């Protein structure tokens, strides 16, 4: 999402010419960026402020054509609608964020989690499944013939789910992006991706791994947003970036906000400079060509007088 915000800051730049085709192209690019933002699950409300600021800042730039103004009004309207919708969605996602964190499988059962095993083969441990009261098993064959979302809609009846898988990284690569929209469903307010390394793993090991996830800052930060998303490849990338910068989530978002703000301001100044440069250039060219024209006329007059003499 951070990349999309920065991308949008540059896509929304008004072109330095009033060519209708270029103006429409800039508007289409920014509209495409907004379309991506509509489908972003991890959107932060601060991005809405940035987007609205960028939309409003364009309205006060000079030399706008009529078609460009229409584009800006339409984009600003979309930003306002999106902000209202996402504020409501953010409130829905964080409505249960103050509930106590589960610390064991028993706590999960008390909180009405549906514990689900996702396996790429059929030789799973039946005793473990019975001990955990797991009744739903998704196999590789199921994933091949149906999408992950369709399987969840059919088999998941309770609000919460704990997904356990052995080759979990392979499974996430296949289904992670396609499963994101399910986070908006009322059936899934929280999802935990859980590393189930061995088929014969014992219950105490599950408790230990789950507790380590819960006690880590990763799980807590994600829980503050109303959901858990324990997916190692994605979490490691985020955590490495923030570890290098030594920043919290809010500080990291604020830095992105400043980057976009500075980019918009610099482009605004550059465009004003360019407009003034063009205006001064036009005046200079007029004077230059006027001087040339004056000299040409003067030369013609001198030639006429020279011929007469």
From TrEMBL:
Keywords tagged on the record: Membrane, Transmembrane, Transmembrane helix
TM helices/strands, residue ranges: 252-275
Protein name per UniProt: Uncharacterized protein
The organism of origin for this protein: Polypedilum vanderplanki (Sleeping chironomid midge)
């Amino acid at each position: 999402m951070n990349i999309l915000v920065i991308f949008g800051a540059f896509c929304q730049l008004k072109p330095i010419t009033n060519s209708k085709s270029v103006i429409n192209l800039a508007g289409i690019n920014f509209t495409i960026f907004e379309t991506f933002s509509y489908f972003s699950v991890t959107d932060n409300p601060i991005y809405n402020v940035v987007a609205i600021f960028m939309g409003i800042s364009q309205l006060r730039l000079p030399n706008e054509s009529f078609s460009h103004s229409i584009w800006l009004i339409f984009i600003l309207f979309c930003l306002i609608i999106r902000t209202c919708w996402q504020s409501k969605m953010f409130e829905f996602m964080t409505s249960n964020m103050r509930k106590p964190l589960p610390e064991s499988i028993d706590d999960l059962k008390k909180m009405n989690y549906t514990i689900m095993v996702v396996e790429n083969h059929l030789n799973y441990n039946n005793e473990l499944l019975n001990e955990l009261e797991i009744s739903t098993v998704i196999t590789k064959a199921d994933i091949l013939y149906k999408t992950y979302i369709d399987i969840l809609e059919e088999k998941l009846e309770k609000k919460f789910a704990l997904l356990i898988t052995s080759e979990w990284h392979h499974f996430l690569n296949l289904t992670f992006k396609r499963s994101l929209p399910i986070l908006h469903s009322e059936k899934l307010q929280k999802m935990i991706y859980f590393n189930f390394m061995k088929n014969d793993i014992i219950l105490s090991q599950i408790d230990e791994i789950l507790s380590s996830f819960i006690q880590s800052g990763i799980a807590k930060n994600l829980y503050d947003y109303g959901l858990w998303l324990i997916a190692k490849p994605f979490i490691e990338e985020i955590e490495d970036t923030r570890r290098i910068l030594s920043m919290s989530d809010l500080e990291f978002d604020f830095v992105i906000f400043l980057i976009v703000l500075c980019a918009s301001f610099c482009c605004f100044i550059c465009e004003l400079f360019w407009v003034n440069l063009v205006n001064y250039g036009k005046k200079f060219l007029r004077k230059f060509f006027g001087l040339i024209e004056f000299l040409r006329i003067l030369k013609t007059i001198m030639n006429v007088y020279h011929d007469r003499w």
